[in-house]
Amino acid sequence: MGVRKELHLTGNLGDGMQIEVDFGKCAGHGVCALEAPEIFDIDDESGLAVLRTERPEGQEAAVNAAVRGCPERAITIA
Ligand code: SF4
Which end of the chain is more exposed for a tag (fewer CB within 10 A), N or C? Predict the structure, then answer.
């Protein structure tokens, strides 16, 4: 069973908000998926964060909470 280890996963989730997860840092804690379940999920196979592609309105606060809550500082937004 291989573990996918992509360096980065970037998603443009609308309103110009760009979210990037650095898989070099991500350890699969899942804090992001708890803070912003509409945006983040944990991939069953790799155990790392994945971005949902569809973005409901009004998720900025949840995304910011995920950025602050990530223990590995793996999430950046621009
Ligand atoms: S909280 Fe950070 S380290 Fe944990 S799964 Fe999410 S992005 Fe990865």
Answer: N
51 contacts 39 by C-beta, under 8 angstroms: yes
Relative to the CA of 31, which ligand 1 atom is closest? 1
Tell whether 32 is covered by a domain. yes
Q: pTM of this prediction? A: 0.81
Residue 2 in any domain: the answer is no
Find the domain containing 69 and state its range: 8-77
Q: Is residue 31 within 8 Å of 40, Cβ to Cβ?
A: no
CA of 73 to the centre of ligand 1 (A): 8
- Whether residue 3 is contained in a domain is answered as no
Question: Is 40 inside a domain boundary?
Answer: yes
Q: Is the CB of 51 under 6 A from ligand 1?
A: no
Q: Which of 4, 9, 19, 21 to mutate to test the pocket of ligand 1 (most atoms within 8 A of CB)?
A: 21
